[in-house]
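On clarity, I found the account of how folds are encoded harder to follow than it need be. Since the whole study asks how a given chain folds, the encoding of that fold should be made plain. The format is easy to grasp once an entry is in front of the reader. For illustration, here is how one protein appears when written out as sequence plus structure tokens.
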Amino acid sequence: MKKLYLLLVCAMLVISATAQEKPGGKKRKKPSGAYNKQNNENEKFLNKQWWLGLKGGINLSNTTVLKSYSVISRDESTGTTNKKYEDFKQLGSQISLEASFYISGFSLSFQPTYQHAVFSYANEYEWTGTGTNNLTLTYDQEQKVEHLQLPFIIKYEFGGNTLRPYLQIGGYSAILLNAVKAVTITGVDNASGGTNEFVDGPITVGADDLFAKSHWGLIGGAGVYYNVGNVRLNLDVMYKYGMSNISSTENRYSNDRLTGVGDAMDDLTLDNLAINIGCLFPLRFLENGFKSLDRK
């Protein structure tokens, strides 16, 4: 009889185990403690996170003249300059390493950036004589400047979980890495009895000494994150507003080749409109099955 009871108990255990494994059978619920623990881990991942990644893109530059200078004497009473700056026309580039700490909608971001900016201006001089005897010279000046920028930015995110727009504001300091200047001279000579057009140059020189070793500015902009699993794709636009002079006041006339063609750097600030795309990765991971899009 005892053997019969033992066989019946074993048979009931086998039947019970088989029923639980059937596709149509009901799954056993996880203990509430384990569920709450997993939910808390998900919330920590989504609401408090370190992100690290790269981004890069293109930029356009704009200058604001604080005070104009020239090698050739001119009438200072008008307060005007004969230099014509071409704003937001020359294409530059940048690449950034981004490290951000996110908590409950806000991010504090540090983004060391290599920036290559290009801006240019042209100045024109005319010498007139009797009749049609005159000479017109135009100097096209192109500046290529490389800086290491150190921006600190605060971001505010809003919207859904898949697509999250954000606003950003901050400031930066910039350290000069390299500068190159190219001058092309074009002219029209009517002094020889006919019209003679000519082009001379370009004259290309290293121009590190003509720029300030450092400057600083403010940042404003907006962007959007697109969450793919635990990874964030990023598109952002930022405007960098220069607050200090980027020209060297001590070395304004130090380059003989440039002063010889009538050039002197103005005191000016440099603004920059930058567009970036990038990718960010979380530094705190959950198990492989979790995706940030799981949260509705």
In short: The domain at 50-294 is CATH 2.40.160.20 (Porin). The chain is about 15% helix and 55% strand. The helical segments are 2-21, 32-47, 256-259.
